[in-house]
Thiamine-binding protein
Amino acid sequence: MIVAFSLTPSAGDETGGVHDAVAEAIRIVRASGLPNETNAMFTNVEGEWDEVMAVVKQAVDAVTAVSPRVGLVLKADIRPGYTGQLSAKVQRVEDALDR
């Protein structure tokens, strides 16, 4: 499965920024060893249900530690038996564009 998720802390640092809290969540994702990528809006993680959801929970917990309230947006592509789709899905679109 691939999960795209975004965390939004309700409170920022002394300047109103939330980048430090978000960076801590991304550190957790990257340390998980699961295939992942981060873009301007979401972090995508690929793996089995339990391992992906455990990483999302750890990321939420990290942000909750510094913010009294956290918003979570999560979208999942659940396709049993398929792996490597984090890049394969994008490659199929790129191939179609090249035709």
